From TrEMBL:
Belongs to the PlsY family. One of its GO terms (molecular function) is acyl-phosphate glycerol-3-phosphate acyltransferase activity. It is found in: Cell membrane. InterPro entries: G3P_acylTferase_PlsY. It comes from the Bacteria. It catalyses: an acyl phosphate + sn-glycerol 3-phosphate = a 1-acyl-sn-glycero-3-phosphate + phosphate. The chain crosses the membrane at residues 78-99, 105-129, 136-155, 161-180. This is Glycerol-3-phosphate acyltransferase. GO terms for biological process: phospholipid biosynthetic process.
């Protein structure tokens, strides 16, 4: 029963739609009707500005961290990794928004930070370098996510963490399918670029 409650808590934590809420509170808009329509940091940055977008990022990373820390405290490494995955599922498919959420990158990063801080730093380093040189947030996110399972394998982490790396990266990368298509077509927007 404890496992079910922890996993449900992780899902519902993940389902807190910070981009939606902060856009409503600061601009009085439904962020799903603006920009890419995505309920996440990058669309918040483009739609409601830097200050509110930073709050979105903190909220999304924070819910990932909190879900894993709760599971670590009340459970074990297996439950913690499952909670990390559930927070991403909750973010991507939130009940409160009719299962239409974000892409899981920030929530997944928060979970990763609580589970595997070194791999989280590697992922954010890859993300930062990629975004700096290409100006594509989506490409940075995809490559950062791809870094995680490789790092967990090279570092010979516990099987729970390897599974989290593989599945978490898959969740994030698959949610970026439209970005991947636009990257190949050359139509993906760069950071700071106007429509």
């Amino acid at each position: 029963m404890k496992i079910v409650l922890l996993l449900l808590a992780a899902y519902f934590l993940g389902g807190i739609p910070w981009a939606y809420l902060i856009a409503k509170w600061t601009r009085g808009i439904d962020i799903r009707q603006y920009g890419s329509g995505n309920v996440g940091f990058t669309n918040a940055l483009r739609t409601i500005g830097k200050g509110p977008a930073v709050l979105v990022l903190i909220g999304d990373i924070g819910k990932g961290i909190l879900a894993v820390l709760l599971a670590k405290y009340f459970g074990n490494p297996t439950i913690a990794t499952l909670s990390g995955l559930m927070v991403v599922v909750g973010h991507n498919y939130p009940l409160v928004l009719g299962f239409r959420g974000g892409k899981g990158a920030a929530a997944g990063f928060g979970a990763l930070l609580a589970l595997l801080p070194f791999e989280a730093l590697l992922a954010v380093l890859v993300w930062g370098i990629t975004v700096f040189f290409t100006r594509y947030v989506s490409l940075g996110t995809i490559l950062g996510a791809f870094t995680v399972p490789i790092a967990t394998l090279i570092l010979q982490e516990d099987i729970n963490y390897i599974a989290f790396g593989v599945l978490g990266a898959a969740f994030v990368i698959l949610k970026h399918h439209s970005n991947i298509s636009r990257l190949f077509k050359g139509t993906e927007r760069k950071i700071g670029e106007k429509k």
